[in-house]
Amino acid sequence: MVDDLYTAQQIDLRARARDLAETVMRPVAGKYDVEQTYPWEVQQAIKHAGLSGVWIPKAYGGLGGGVLDLCLVVEEFSRACGGMGVGYAVNALGSFPILVGGTDEQKERWLPPIAAGDKLIAFGLSEKDAGSDAGSMATRAAKDGDVYVLQGEKKWNTGGAVASFNTIFAVTQPGRGARGISAFVVEKDTPGYRVGKHEDKMGIRCVPVVEIHLEDCRVPVRNLLGGEEGHGFKHAMVTLDRARPGVAAQAIGLAQGALDLAIAYTHERKQFGQSISSFQGIQWMLADMATQVEAARALVHHAARAIDAGHKHITKLSAMCKVMATDVAMKVTTDAVQLFGGYGYCKDYPVEKYMRDAKITQIYEGTNQIQRLVIARSLLREAAGAGG
Ligand code: CAA
Question: In this structure, are residues 183 and 235 in contact, taking their beta carbons and an 8 Å threshold?
């Protein structure tokens, strides 16, 4: 990274995140991967380092950073552990709908404890039969006096088992399609809110991905985001536009972390009487991996800057950076395993975890097939004279 392209605050933030990643996260990444339990000690360390609310405005107790600041921190965390990177980033995903669509009173109620690291938040959009087609969700919210009664089930809820708040999307006006969807912040102690199945995952194993059951879950009307029905799908889409660079940054961190390991290993490993890094075939692989990481990082930071600058049409850029960075992460982490040879395939070395952690980045927050659809739709709209 060329430091001149970043503000002093961003360089400081990155250094603090790197320090925490190296001293607190890396030493325990393997342990939590095996145990598949949530690293509360890491969450506490993030809180004490003052990094919990990087993306939250200062008015609500955060650091007032933008999407680029968030990406810098997520990359550093993910370079040490992809699971810890997303365990952190999912709080941005869960709280963006409040920032995007919440009333001042709602922001004051929910954002300060998240910014302080006292409370965690998740994002409940997907369902068993509504993944890519998020608009076809079946969860319902029916108004009954001063509460909404929520019925349904959310799936792939990242961090849901440890979150105090969950931003839940539900249909309030059936028959109106995407315009009939509303967003609610549901607090975990609400009767009828229950954490269900914990997924047994290939990667990002330290962060719980769970089902959330909503059984006659009575949520106060004042928890309806923005105070008006029907804006939930838009809030979800605008949120994903802002959050996808965070997944891309997680992918860059994983790719960079695997590349770091591969460079060190190929230098150390001797075959045919010399270090394998002296072979041109290996050097070319390392060169391609580093070039791909640098190119992907540049696109992620370009997209993040466009969002922070308030650029109107960021949907396409956001999807592009997610596709590119996550495909690069899969390629680079796979190549890193290859460079370790047989050792790379075994759990004695940490590199295989990077490959497992990388896979999900091509899937969640919209599969890369959906990102390509979003990009193509934008291109065609632009060609027809509308904004992308
Ligand atoms: N910004 C603002 N508004 C948008 C928008 C955007 N980026 N994209 C769509 N909209 C609006 C449209 O303008 C339209 O509004 P009107 O009704 O006023 O015209 C409305 O939303 C519906 O849009 P579409 O007709 O385009 O919607 P669609 O049903 O065709 O779906 C989609 C579009 C892009 C495929 C969308 O469903 C999508 O992004 N799917 C993927 C969902 C996803 O990313 N899920 C992951 C969830 S998070 C997760 O993985 C778990 C976790 O915990 C990490």
Answer: yes
Closest ligand 1 atom to 377 CA: 26
Per-residue pLDDT reduced to its tens digit, 250-289: 999 999 999 999 999 999 999 999 999 999 999 999 999 9
Which numbered atom of ligand 1 lies nearest the CA of 366?
Answer: 44
Q: What is the pTM of this model?
A: 0.97
Which positions are annotated as active-site residues? 365
Q: How far is the CA of 325 from the centre of ligand 1 (A)?
A: 21
| Domain covering 3-115, topology | Butyryl-Coa Dehydrogenase, subunit A; domain 1 (1.10.540)
β-partners of residue 219 are 148
> Which of 198, 209, 233 has most ligand 1 atoms within 8 Å of its beta carbon, as the pocket-test mutant?
233
Domain ranges of the chain: 3-115, 121-231, 234-387
Residue 228: is its pLDDT beyond 80? yes
Which residues are CB-contacts of 335 (< 8 A; sequence separation ≥ 6)? Answer: 262, 285, 288, 289
Structure confidence at residue 386 (pLDDT): 72
- At 1 the pLDDT is 72
